[in-house]
Design a protein that fits this description.
Bound molecules: tryptophanyl-5'AMP
Oligomer: single chain
Radius of gyration: 21 Å
Helix content: 40-55%
Order of helices and strands: EHEHHEHHHHEHEHHHHH
Length: 327
């Protein structure tokens, strides 16, 4: 079974990326040979400082490795290193309609009213590049967070349409959502998802945040009214904090709430911060160590691209034949 996912190397990675996507992605390497892409072609759909983009791409690779990705098992590479992604994305623009791309929530959020005419073409057609990533490897399972489900639905529609027009080619990919953590919310506002593009750093816990920063952010995290520590939809802020707590300790949310019977938010928050720090410190140590050898990271990414290349080339050739291109 082919498993594939991607992550944008466009800044910090946060605990939402980890609990919603990276954690299960890494676990899947034990039974499969998954492919994980650092999607720089996606990242440039909003302006990027070239030096930072390069560094962020290496940082994302180092973070995957620090979190436990084994490059002998999983294939990790930089999307732009295989031109097949961009080539297939173009072909898919001829199969998708403006209407279905306009319906994408992420695009709609970026461009309302007047602003809409200024939204970049890349941002508009971005879901087709994601569909190309998936279909290039005929992926069947796509481990992602909840916010990418709509994009995956589009990839499914495109795959079905392609199959109808040109004959059976692609399996229809399914989303693999984390049981818990598929949608981690902002610490400063539990009604919006935790996001690297949030205006306030108090929205997220970056995987690279140091102990003081973590303590400070958790202290400032919004909580719900009342003082009891319970897990439920009536307390969305607390529910989110408990999901994070449970995610980094592997304890059930109920087990955690039982410990705080009769105690208040202050104890809970202190312990949550400690749990996060205990979880993040060894990862950060490995991460810093990995970043001291840039060449090694570049070599791992090249090796990943070379392992993936034959299959990407094979699928694209098959598609070109089906379209009637002279080969
Ligand atoms: P990106 O880079 O925005 O996010 C990477 C992964 O992290 C998940 N995620 C979250 N999960 C839970 N809670 C959150 N607050 C949260 N924020 C982010 C995302 O759902 C995602 O799984 N378009 C994709 C990258 C991509 C891709 C692909 C994914 C490109 N090609 C092919 C799958 C297959 C994106 O921008 O993810």
């Amino acid at each position: 079974m082919r498993i594939l996912s991607g992550i944008q190397p466009s800044g910090i990675l946060h605990i939402g990326n980890y609990l919603g996507a990276m954690r299960q992605q890494i676990a899947l390497q034990e039974e499969h040979e998954p492919i994980y892409l650092l999607v720089d072609l996606h990242a440039i759909t909003v302006p990027q400082d070239p030096k930072l983009l390069r560094q962020n791409t290496l940082n994302a690779a180092a973070m995957y490795l620090a979190l436990g990705l084994d490059p002998e098992k999983a294939i990790l590479y930089v999307q732009s290193q295989l031109s097949e992604h961009a080539e297939l994305a173009w072909i898919l623009t001829t199969i998708a309609s403006m209407g279905e791309l306009e319906r994408m929530t992420q695009f709609k959020e970026k461009g309302r009213g007047e602003e809409r005419t200024k939204v970049g073409m890349g941002l508009f057609s971005y879901p087709l590049l994601m569909a190309a990533d998936i279909l290039l490897y005929k992926a069947q399972k796509v481990p992602i967070g909840d916010d990418q489900v709509q994009h995956l639905e589009l990839a499914r529609d495109i795959a079905k349409r392609f199959n109808q027009r040109f004959g059976d080619t692609f399996p229809i990919p399914d989303a693999l959502l984390a049981e818990s953590g598929a949608r981690i919310m902002g610490l400063d506002d539990p009604t919006v998802k935790m996001s690297k593009s949030a205006t306030s750093a108090y929205n997220y816990i970056a995987l690279t945040d140091d102990a003081d920063t973590v303590r400070n952010k958790i202290k400032k995290a919004v909580t719900d009214s009342g003082s009891e520590i319970t897990y439920g939809n009536d307390k969305p802020a607390l529910k989110n904090l408990l999901t994070i707590f449970s995610g980094v300790t592997n304890e059930k949310a109920e087990t955690i709430t039982e410990r705080y019977a009769g105690k208040g938010y202050a104890d809970f928050k202190t312990d949550l911060a400690d749990a996060l720090i205990a979880f993040l410190s060894p990862i950060q140590e490995r991460y810093q160590h990995l970043l001291t050898d840039e060449q090694q990271l570049v070599d791992i990414l090249h090796a990943g691209a070379e392992r993936a290349r034959p299959q990407a080339a094979h699928t694209l050739k098959e598609i070109k034949e089906k379209l009637g291109f002279v080969l």
